[in-house]
Specification:
The complex is a heterotrimer of chains A (290), B (241) and C (325). With 290 residues, chain A is mainly α. Chain A has helices at residues 4-35, 42-60, 64-87, 95-117, 142-164, 166-176, 178-183, 188-210, 220-235, 240-260, 266-280; strands at residues 132-135, 138-141. Chain A has one domain (9-219). Chain A has eleven helices and two strands; from the N terminus they run H-H-H-H-E-E-H-H-H-H-H-H-H. Chain A has a two-stranded antiparallel sheet with strand order 1-2. In chain A, helix 2 (42-60) runs parallel beside helix 4 (95-117), helix 2 crosses helix 9 (220-235) and helix 9 (220-235) runs parallel beside helix 11 (266-280). The relative contact order of chain A is 0.21. Chain B has nine helices and ten strands. Chain B has a six-stranded mixed sheet with strand order 6-7-8-3-9-10, sandwiched between helices. A four-stranded antiparallel sheet of chain B has the order 2-1-4-5, covered by helices on one side. The longest helix of chain B is centred in the C-terminal third of the chain and has 18 residues, at 169-186. The two termini of chain B are 31 Å apart. Chain C is mainly α. Chain C contains 14 helices and two strands, in the order αααααβααααβααααα. In chain C, strands 1-2 form a two-stranded antiparallel sheet. In chain C, helix 7 crosses helix 9 (209-235). Classes of the chains: A mainly alpha (290), B alpha/beta (241), C mainly alpha (325). Chains in contact: A-C, B-C. The interface between A and C is large, with 43 and 37 residues.
Chain lengths: 290, 241, 325
């Protein structure tokens, strides 16, 4: 039985990582919840953000937190274009058609990464990655804490955008009632593209934060996709708070599973949780019943 | 002899009392009408009989056997066929295949199912269109298809849910003729929910009137039309004779 | 019905069958192994098609059945020397049980569409990681089956030259095709299509949708289990990372999606197009000295993208219309 403060450290570490997961999942929740698109390429997008951060670091010595700005901008454009160009025509098509479309995009993205970057792991090396804060018995990694803070700030900004701005409300209107939104004159296609762009921005920021914590390899793409879905479903579709809560839950459970069982089995726990949630409470913890 | 007995059924939906203590009997071999204004509880009653949901209290007996609480497919197997208010054809299948789906309930072999289906389609005037995709039919034809499909399950009781809705008067008359013929030739008992009074008056031997979830009148069309309670709440406001 | 129209598909089928049966006499072992692979994907695609094309349930975790089937038969052979013909039954039994569990859970709790797909992915992933930690089947290091000889046909232990595997796979694919053709025209086929089109209307016609959907899942799982057994005795090494991986599940669906979901010829056509084109691209790139990992899969992705965008019902339906089938 591991010592109490070891467990506490692991839990804290799980919470912080979980907040970054939560931001990634927030992007998916927004995309899935509004545009109703199953973004099967979500994890791949996250992985691309991580790679971009490594490239910017290698070329310009740009700290990942600073890299967030250009990467987010690029991702917004990419996300908007993807929705407007590729996905919008698919809104009326049957569900599995849309799904296949994004499966195809995911396959292309993950293997393009493999082609360009190769299978070896990449990362960034900044000074504060090796430092930590001491808070009593807790030893908190500086990088992890900063990453989590960035995630929370970004999530709060998104929350505020959707709650208080006109555009944000318009987007929520589309989510609630597609036909009604069109009738009142909202340019739904533009709003959908905007939403996808914003979801992509979440992923960009989360990716830049994550690269401080984890080495990046192409296979991370599919596993992050699945992770994002687990979080969104557990936390509740359409609930931004749910995405963060789900992220934290998964982060902590993975960390604890890694401690008590074995690190490689940690995703098993997440999948088990997904199955349970799908069966018993499909609207998730904070979601609304469909 | 009553084929269908609805005894004191009630149904609430989260505080809304949709149907309360409703009772009526549908005699064997008859055409029976269930009418009432919108929100009267007709569709809820219909759905309880069809097995979409179970009544909160009360019983529904079909040929003396209880059917309340049975699933929709069990109700059909027991001998009750139904149509939908907004028609639901199997759009990707042909007209004939649509009916065959119904026929397979009683005929296990494809050939027998096909023969039965062709006969029914001929009877309803859709014989020539049987290879067409169901999605290409006009609304009146879709309604006939819906009836044909339900008939293929060889029902003893046919439930018709506002089958005249959306039809022009001539089309309506054609449907009336179809049901009259079915009832006369095969003795199929029919329970129809209708708004279109023309059809109800022409077809029903007896009518039950619902209002705010309760039965306010039962009797022959002539009796019901003169009933003061009915006149006050329903026929006085919207009559399509 | 026009007599000529009724005969054309039979001519085509016979022609195709003749070509496939005679193929080994005209090509070498490498081409034969490619053909075997095409048939393998056509077969698993057809098995998957039963669940998707017939019952309308999107499974993205079909590798689960391949893996469990392979490991079941493989373990029996590895530890007890029990041949594939007996191992087959265990494989089928396990996979049907698994499929029924997944189906039961999903349908009882009303899970469909995307959520069902995610459920199937979750089960496959869960099993993959489980097998990674399951020592008895070799864990992540994998299980290796003894290969005594490969020259003469040993049907009892399913060992022999590439020719034997080719004919075995051809037999399985033809059998799957016949089974699906028969199912489509039977009561089951009509009921499944009805459920897929409009489940509520189907129930109003006396169809117990729950039971029929479970049946589709069970048949699909059983058929895929057989592919797993073939896989075990053809490749002779099994790794959880490989056999349960989501890429395998995606490979299984590529054939039918590209060829045409719900059609009989779709899986075969899709598998053929995909394998031949990708092999062609691989060879071309090798010739140009560009052998980069990931190129083949990018190609798969692009083909899938184009098909989904421009030919949403697959390649086969427009061809079938041209041939007036």
């Amino acid at each position: 039985m591991p010592a109490a403060d070891l467990v506490a450290n692991v839990v804290v570490s799980g919470i912080l990582t979980g907040l970054v997961y939560g931001l990634m999942a927030l992007g998916l929740s927004v995309i899935f919840g509004v545009v109703r698109v199953v973004n099967f390429a979500h994890g791949e997008m996250m992985t691309i953000a991580m790679y971009m951060a490594t490239v910017l670091f290698a070329a310009l010595k740009l700290d990942p937190f600073l890299a967030m700005l250009p990467v987010a901008a690029a991702f917004f454009v990419f996300g908007y274009a993807l929705q407007a160009g590729l996905i919008n025509p698919f809104i009326t098509r049957p569900e599995h058609s849309q799904f296949m479309l994004l499966v195809a995009v995911a396959i292309i993205l993950v293997n393009a990464m493999l082609m360009v970057f190769g299978p070896d792991a990449r990362n960034v090396q900044v000074d504060y990655q090796l430092e930590s804060f001491e808070l009593g018995p807790l030893l908190v990694d500086k990088a992890r804490l900063f990453a989590a803070i960035a995630a929370v700030v970004a999530a709060a900004a998104f929350f505020a955008f959707f709650r208080y701005t006109l555009t944000g409300k318009a987007i929520r209107a589309c989510a609630d009632n597609y036909l009604g939104a069109r009738i009142v004159g909202l340019n739904v296609k533009h709003l959908y593209a905007l939403t996808f762009g914003l979801g992509a921005v979440c992923v960009a920021i989360a990716g830049c934060a994550m690269v401080l914590l984890v080495d990046v390899t192409p296979p991370l793409g599919p596993s992050y996709t699945l992770l994002a879905f687990v979080i969104v479903i557990v936390g509740g579709l359409g609930s931004m708070g749910g995405a963060l809560l789900g992220g934290v839950l998964i982060g902590v459970s993975e960390a604890l599973a890694g401690l008590f069982i074995t690190p490689s089995a940690k995703s098993m726990f997440s999948f088990g949780l997904l199955i349970l949630v799908l069966l018993l409470r499909p609207q998730g913890l904070l979601g609304k019943r469909a | 002899m009553s084929l269908l007995e609805v005894r004191s059924v009630s149904k609430r939906f989260r505080g809304l009392r949709a149907v309360h203590d409703a009772s009526f009997d549908v005699p064997q071999g008859e055409i029976y009408g269930l009418i009432g204004p919108n929100g009267a509880g007709k569709t809820t009653t219909f759905n309880m009989i069809a097995g979409v949901y179970a009544p909160d209290s009360g019983e529904i007996l079909f040929g003396s056997a209880p059917i309340h609480g049975l699933r929709a497919d069990q109700v059909c197997a027991a001998g009750i066929g139904r149509t939908f208010q907004i028609v639901k054809p199997f759009a990707g299948l042909s007209v004939l295949d649509n009916v065959m789906v119904g026929a397979f309930l009683r005929e296990r072999q494809a050939r027998a199912a096909r023969e039965l289906s062709v006969r029914i389609l001929e009877r309803l005037g859709l014989g020539a269109k049987r290879e067409l995709p169901a999605s290409s039919l006009t609304l009146p034809d879709r309604k006939r298809l819906e009836v044909a499909r339900a008939l293929a399950t060889r029902p003893k009781l046919l439930l018709l849910d506002e089958v005249m809705a959306g039809l022009r008067p001539t089309e309506c008359d054609q449907m009336i003729a179809v049901f009259r013929e079915l009832n006369r030739a095969d003795g199929t008992t029919i329970l129809l929910i209708e708004h279109v009074m023309r059809a109800v008056m022409a077809l029903a031997r007896h009518i039950c009137v619902l209002h705010h979830g309760e039965v306010i009148a039962r009797g022959t069309p002539q009796e019901v039309v003169r009933n003061p309670a009915v006149l006050e709440c329903y026929l006085g406001e919207e009559t399509e004779v | 019905m026009n007599r000529n129209r009724a005969l054309t598909p039979i001519y085509l089928l016979t022609g195709l069958a003749a070509i496939l049966v005679a193929l080994p006499f005209f090509v070498g072992n490498y081409a034969l192994s490619v053909a075997t692979l095409i048939l393998y994907f056509a077969y698993t695609g057809q098995a998957w098609n039963v669940m998707m094309g017939f019952a309308g349930q999107l499974s993205l975790g079909h590798a689960l059945y391949v893996g469990v089937g392979a490991y079941a038969a493989g373990a029996l052979f590895f530890y007890y020397g029990i041949g594939p013909w007996a191992g087959l039954w265990l494989a089928i039994a396990l996979c049907v049980a698994l499929g029924l569990v997944i189906g039961f859970l999903a349908f009882r709790f009303g899970i469909s569409g995307v959520y069902f797909a995610l459920l199937t992915i979750a089960f496959a992933e869960f099993t993959r990681i489980g097998f990674d930690h399951f020592g008895w089947t070799g864990g992540p290091g994998g299980m290796f089956l003894r290969v005594a000889q490969r020259d003469t046909w040993d049907l009892a232990n399913f060992r022999g030259p590439p020719l034997m595997y080719y004919y075995a796979m051809l037999f399985l694919t033809a059998g799957a095709f016949a089974l699906c053709a028969w199912l489509l025209r039977s009561r089951a086929g009509y009921y499944w299509q009805a459920i897929r089109e409009d489940e509520e209307a189907a129930r109003a016609l006396g169809i117990n949708a729950f039971r029929w959907k479970l049946l589709a899942v069970a048949i699909s799982a059983a058929m895929t289990a057989v592919a797993g057994v073939f896989f075990a005795f053809y490749y002779n090494n099994l790794f959880p990372e490989q056999i349960f991986h989501i890429s395998r599940s995606i490979e299984i669906i590529l054939g039918p999606v590209i060829g045409g979901v719900g059609t009989l010829f779709g899986p075969l056509l899709g598998a053929a197009v995909l394998t031949l084109l990708s092999d062609g691209i691989s060879d071309a790139l090798n010739a140009l000295g560009l052998d980069i990992p990931g190129v083949k899969q990018v190609f798969y992705g692009l083909v899938l993208l184009c098909v989904v965008m421009f030919l949403p019902h697959g390649i086969w339906p427009p061809i079938a219309r041209r041939l007036r089938l």
